[in-house]
Amino acid sequence: MGYGANESSDPSTSAVPRPATAAADGAVPAHGAVPAHGAVPAHDAVPAKDKVPATAADKPPARSKQAERRRRRWAKLELPLLIVIAIAIAIVLKTFVVQPFYIPSQSMEQTLHGCPGCTGDRILVFKPVYQIRDPHPGDVVVFRAPHDWDELAGAPLSTNRVVRGVQMFGQLVGVVPPSEKDLVKRVIAIGGQTVRCCDSNGNVEISDNGPEGPWRSLNEPYVFENSSWSKPKAPGLRSADDTRSFGPVTVPEGRLWVMGDHRSDSADSRYHCGDTSGGKTCDPMNSTVGNDDVIGKAVVIAWPPSRWRTLGTPATFSALGVPGWAGSPAEPAAAAMLLTAGIGGWRRKRRRR
After folding, report:
1. Is 94 a residue of the active site?
2. Residues 107, 207, 245, 287: which is the catalytic one?
3. Is 107 a catalytic residue?
4. pTM over 0.70, yes/no
5. Angle in degrees, CA 159, 162, 166, rounded to 5
6. CATH topology assigned to domain 98-339
7. What pLDDT does residue 55 have?
């Protein structure tokens, strides 16, 4: 009996109720509750003073009004600036590299179309090639006509100031025919060579050693409607209907003998000979074109699309070993460099996008 009384009075064994606010072992305090002494707050619990609202943290800084006005101003200038740059590039290309030309006459038929009723060809003339070398026999060249050559060429400018300004701008970028007399012909002989017509078959002949020869005849399949000619009855004579014969003419150094492919309708070197003595005399200066007057080499028919093709040098000139012809790879190399530069610029533009 005494033992039982002592057991019930022992405070260590008596049941003591826990406070109602104490959290159970391992439980997370309810929202707003203060954890008991020694308890660890939940992992994502952040003191209220350090919390940043999510919307404020994610929101990008607002543009200043000044920056916004600057952006709008540049947006308005972008298109005009691109147009000015494009025009500047066109002018530079036309002046130094490639220039389009319109063919107004039929003197180069049918290599180049320019006859009445035909769609006038537009050709691209490559300029840098003659900074590397002189023109070669067989090249189709565009040149400024000598002052006394009266073949039809050029576009007269209007007397109206507005229209005249538009024409001059079109000429500057190469979409309007030039007002000066720019002609296109084929180079037949260069300075130092002697040229004449005709051999026993009516062909043009070339000599590298003066009028005494030896002579080499040109086979010219590109010629369209040649001038009239008949074989003379005796050497040294000229038939009454012969309008083809000329020379011999020794071309002065630095000058070119040029002829159209439409021989019966071309005011070319032969036409400007001033030959009045049966084909034996010809003024070598008035009938030729200076190398410095050559604008460039015609390389491509660019318009109309149905006639797109390149304008190479006929085999007759290479086969005869005409001096200087072997240098012709200069223009393909230059064209390749231009093409490479253009492709490189296009690719860089694509990458920037």
Report:
1. no
2. 107
3. yes
4. no
5. 100
6. Umud Fragment, subunit A (2.10.109)
7. 54
